[in-house]
Every structure is written in structure tokens, then in C-alpha cells.
């Protein structure tokens, strides 16, 4: 099974950025532990702060991978283009968020990804990614 985790803008700052919301672990540290725990799964990771690069990656793997776990960050609430890219591929996508976006600012309650996603997981910290991974298994 091949699963790709895609992180969007500012998620490269995990471990440094607002630790009270996002925790103190870097995503790379978390990803190493995830790969060890799920050794039978071929896990890949991609992060970009650039909307077009995220779309390109969705197009690249969207017909060959078994699943995509996507935390598009703020693009979740602004990018019709990422939503359209998900609609155009065959690989199922699960939208994840580290924080509970529905307990935050009003603009974060809108997702252009959700209508085209298999499901949404939010508010469980980095465990949101693991829950998404479990749903594919």
C-alpha cells in the first residue's frame, strides 16, 4: 500500500510555530515514528508552501497511490484549485488538521477540500495523520 502525506503552507514550521496549538515535535520527527509503526506501508511525505506545487503533486500521484493524507493548511479555506485537483484524481484524499479548525476563526470553518475528500479528521494533534492512515488500512 502506498500512501502520501502532503502538508501545505507553514507546516514546515511544526515544532517551532505556535507550540500551544501545534505541539513541539517537528513533522519530520513524527514522520520517522509513523514509518516505524507502519513499516508494512510505503509512506511518502511532501511539503510545500506553494499552491501550484501541491496541485502538481496531487496530479503526479493521484492515479497510482492508494491514498493521500492532505493538510493543506490555510489553502484549505482559500484554494478552489486544490479542491478541483482532488476532484480530478482517482486516489482518495483525507483532509486532516492538527487543530480543531471549527473552534478557531470563522474563516477556518470553510473547506474547499472537504466536498471532494473521502473524509475529514481534525483536532487530534499529529494523531490526526495516524487516524487518517488507519482509515486507509
From TrEMBL:
Protein role: Catalyzes a trans-dehydration via an enolate intermediate.
User: Pathway membership of this protein?
Assistant: Metabolic intermediate biosynthesis; chorismate biosynthesis; chorismate from D-erythrose 4-phosphate and phosphoenolpyruvate: step 3/7
- Name of this chain's protein: 3-dehydroquinate dehydratase
Q: Per its UniProt entry, what is the enzyme's top EC class, as one word?
A: lyase
Query: Which InterPro entries has this protein been placed in?
Result: DHquinase_II, DHquinase_II_CS, DHquinase_II_sf
Give binding positions for substrate: 71, 77, 84, 98-99, 108
**EC assignment:** 4.2.1.10
What is the native source organism of this protein? Lutibacter profundi
